# Entry
Amino acid sequence: MITKEDLQRAIELVDKSERILVTTHTKPDGDALGCLVAVCEALRIIGKNVKPLLQSPTPDWYKFLLTEKVPVLGEDIQSEDLKSGRFGKFDLVIILDTNSPGQLPKFKDYLKQNNKPILVIDHHMTSDGLGAAVELIEADAAATALVVLELFKYSGWEITETIAEALFVATATDTGWFQFNNTDGRVFSACAELINMGVKPTVLYHKLYENFSQSRFRLMIAMLNTFEPLLNDQFAMMHITQQDFERSGATYADSENLINECRRIKTVDTTALFIELDDGKIRCSLRSKGAVDVGEIAAVFGGGGHKMAAGTFVPGPMENAKKLILEEVSKRFS
# Structure
């Protein structure tokens, strides 16, 4: 539970800082990007010099949130630019939607040499710790956006229509547009407030969920063709290979949320989507309707997340990765 003292300490950190770096985890989702946009705009309004930084590119369907080109570490700037100060010299680093170095693979070296305070705002139970001076972490919050909104309201910082839209997208996407079990009264209360500030949910739904490219649709078809029901149809596995990306013309970002297609099946509680990356690594996304804590499974392999949604890297090749995850899931259905 976040206390008023925690919020006050976070505000004091911001107040005494002039140059602030804001970032989030690799493969940013709606919660990560929405919080990044909201925090950057709020800090600029109160007169701070803010630089956002992404760890990997923004998926096309979230780009409407960004009011500026946000540099990507490893593409637009390199780790050396950060460490040498060429990208900027900062008084404070704000890290959103993660508290794990494993989700900041290209940023870890900078953090090791960083001697300035870090503020972490997050809602994940998995936490390896980033050496933050202040942590605003609430594992019971459905989205990091709800923690950010609480900070804004406590501080009295202005919530513009742009900020409200970003926080709504963050909350709606992290609850599966209010379908997941983490959707509680706090979610609806917060979203009602944001709607009253000018957010238009139907417009946002169209931008997020009715805006597939043909290449992304072809990738989804390729994935569905690998559907494999197991454990009395309670568990389902699917995969995407590098060949699938090449044939469809899709990118890695196009795979986000495709795992949720299996949730439509009545008998399936737990799903795993395995993605072969261009460096040969296997990324596994996990989802559950509640019978299995997929956060525990991800943690076995050094990943993390929540009971209902988690992710990790699993030793390849593909068949080995599937075998390892199936063994862990089987233990929990036995």
